[in-house]
User: Fold this.
Amino acid sequence: MKVCHQGIYEAFETVCTRNLSPSKEKVWFDYVDAYSDVMSDGVLATAFTISNSLGQNGLHRAHFLDEAVKLFPKQLVSFGKRLQNITEDGNGRLVMHFDDGTVAETDAIIGCDGIKSRVRQAIVGPDHPSARPVYTHKYAYRGLIPMEDACAAVGEERAQNACMYMGHDKHILTFPVNHGKTLNLVAFRTTSEDWPDAQRLTRSGELNELLHEFEDYGPAVIKLLKLLDPKLNVWAIFDLGYPAPTFYKGRICISGDAAHATSPHHGAGAGFCIEDSAMLAELLADEQVKSRHELEAVFATYDAERRSRAQWLVESSRWIGDCYELRAEGIGNDFTKIEAEIKKRNGIIADINIEEMCARAKDELRKRLSGSCER
Ligand SMILES: Cc1cc2nc3c(=O)[nH]c(=O)nc-3n(C[C@H](O)[C@H](O)[C@H](O)COP(=O)(O)OP(=O)(O)OC[C@H]3O[C@@H](n4cnc5c(N)ncnc54)[C@H](O)[C@@H]3O)c2cc1C
Assistant:
């Protein structure tokens, strides 16, 4: 975030919520065997703990955007537009056509338009398999619980700090939001059934349905689930399981979920979008980029430097989601193996030096611009 802009980092700091217990400052998640459910001194037993240098940082996207938007000069932004398609005029300018009938001309387009990206369709073609997201055969119920009630159900330590309850073909994660006043709960289920409508990635669900599906969980977790509203949102978990063959075409590129939408099990989808933005910002600001003629080389460099890491996340997230649900091949319900998998993969996500990554990309860009590196 700091590489993108100091203000982005400050916006994040303003709205983010962390684990409430000082002893859990560096804890990402405590992992709990949902079936053991033994309360010792009011605390459900921990199978293992995953920590990192930053701990658990959660925020509501809308709150973050409200802060971030203050950074943009008003005369440079337009909101409420929906891109329909992109054409090129006779002078090499790109023309964006919006569904309100307006158009806008530009030298380059960075499509950060989410999992159903129109810009990705323009790059790969509407009939390419990567033009559409893929159902991961997991869905998730999502609800909020007042923190006081959650503490009464599972104890303060579990409720006030990020926690993952692992079960067979399902898992629940909880973490504090709203500066600790509320507990956010997401209950994932694996299913062999298809999602009925790929155009609608959510449906309404019932608490009774959720209670039935998680009825084998221990009594403390069940108590927690019963605190949810009777009507719940259900999210289908889609990703770009069919990877895009490229993140750019000419002076059009994609970043964030448009390029590499992932299931949420590594908790890193947005983090990787921020990495994309940091690299694009650094490359576009390079002193060698002086006109639109250098822009294709910028996007080619970005594609070469980002694509394999980002597409690894999509694949790894599916795998780690199965580990949480005791169903990954060769891992099963062996907690030692699950912990090792998480540590290894979280290391690939977290142990990177973004400044070095950007510096390497700038070197590559200069080679491309001097003609010594072909696409
Ligand atoms: C259940 C769940 C849990 C998650 N948990 C985490 C987590 O813990 N940590 C993490 O890092 N990530 C997490 N993620 C992933 C994270 O939410 C996404 O990676 C991130 O929001 C992607 O940002 P984005 O800007 O690329 O896309 P989006 O947030 O999808 O934004 C795309 C924007 O483009 C706009 N748009 C779409 N089409 C058009 C169009 N045609 N014209 C103009 N605008 C358009 C949309 O309105 C939207 O504003 C989670 C995702 C899910 C589903």
